[in-house]
Amino acid sequence: MRTTPRLESALKKLYKAFHNNTLNPECCKQCAVGNILNNMDFWKHLSDNHGALKLNYIGNVHQTLGRRFNGYTPLEILNIEHVFLRACGYQLPLHYKNKKPKNPTDKEVLFNGLSAVITYLCKLDQVDNVMDYTKLFEFKNDNLIIH
Fold first, then answer.
1. Is 46 strand, coil or helix?
2. pLDDT digits (tens, 9 = 90+) for 79-121
3. Rounded Cα distance, 117 and 79, in Å
């Protein structure tokens, strides 16, 4: 399956973070975006609220200038994080009174977030979802279809 360079890079980083237990939705350096951006947290200054989809002044300046961070625009970065947190079970934007998972680093919680992010990243790059396993089971006239 063909992917774009930014997607390939993001997938490798997310896969590595998941298996090395360095994926944490409550840490700006270890969440989905934090891992995609090489465990940096500068991206949290693109919005006023963690998990929000609205760019603040700084985010809008970077978006208007066409800046990209590891291939992703500021708005795409906010969307990636939003998708991740929501799929992990958070009520957004993050706030201590809002709903959140009991164990945010539980592998099942993280897998749900990871799967949602990968689906979103593939959609962004107009690539077939790499997590879609249904093609492995496609048959025509009792013969396996090989893609």
1. helix
2. 999 999 999 999 998 888 999 999 999 999 999 999 999 999 9
3. 9
Tell me which residue of 38, 32, 56, 36 sits closest to 46, measured CA to CA: 56
Task: Answer yes or no: are the C-beta atoms of 44 and 122 closer than 8 Å.
Answer: no
What is the number of alpha carbons within 13 Å of residue 124 lying toward its C-beta? Answer: 21
- Judge whether 94 and 51 are in contact, CB under 8 Å: yes
Locate all alpha helices (DSSP H) within the chain, ordered by sequence.
Answer: 5-19, 32-36, 57-64, 74-88, 107-124
pTM of the model: 0.87
Write down the residue that tokens 């949290």 correspond to.
44
Q: Is 45 helix (H, G, I), strand (E, B) or coil?
A: helix
The SS3 assignment for 111 reads: helix
Which pair of tokens denotes residue 141? Answer: 């006239």
Q: What SS3 class is residue 121?
A: helix
Give the separation between CA 113 and CA 46, rounded to whole angstroms: 21
**Across residues 46-73, what is the average pLDDT?**
96
CA distance 84 to 120: 9
Rounded to whole angstroms, the Cα distance separating 107 from 125 reads: 26
